[in-house]
Amino acid sequence: MSNPTDLVSWSLQMIKMTSNSPRLKLHDLPRNLHYVTISYIETAGSTTTRQKALKEQYFFSCNCPHCIKAQFDDIQESAILEGYICKDNACNGFLLRDSDNKGFICQQCGLFRDKEEIKNIASEVKVVSEKASLTLSAGHKTEASALYKMVEKLQVKLYHQFSINLMRTWENLLKVFMELEDWKQALTYCKLTIPTYQSKLLSLS
């Protein structure tokens, strides 16, 4: 986010003015020192926030290597948290839509996953999730836990282990098992949610 500014001329003038000083000699400066640079904006924000500020305040988009890499990292994080997983169980890659919009391509192994396959599983997840929620609201906790486990089984086929959707199901199961006072099962699902929170906190640090 840094670019040369008018400070260059000012800085060189200051150097010349002080070149006779015993503390600073012009020839003491590195020969490859050509520019003084500053940041246009606060650099601690996310890539999206920084790009938005640059566009609004300075009317340009930054394409420096840092921004390009950060944009890819943002896409990857979003795909892992909200997108789909590779259908190869041995692969831990994330999926992005293919150019023909017929499915998704794993960004790690290149394997194609059909859009209709994902759509069918997602539809089944929605139906069972709604039934589980209604069952829990009716006070049938044991039956609800069985339904949420069905949701979990389906979601594991779709989502990454750090998926927000999968984590919500684990949180529902945690809540149900705590109400059932099944502490062993509750602890199991509590442990499953921790890595997702950890990965998000580490990305913000």
From TrEMBL:
This is Histone-lysine N-methyltransferase ASHR1.
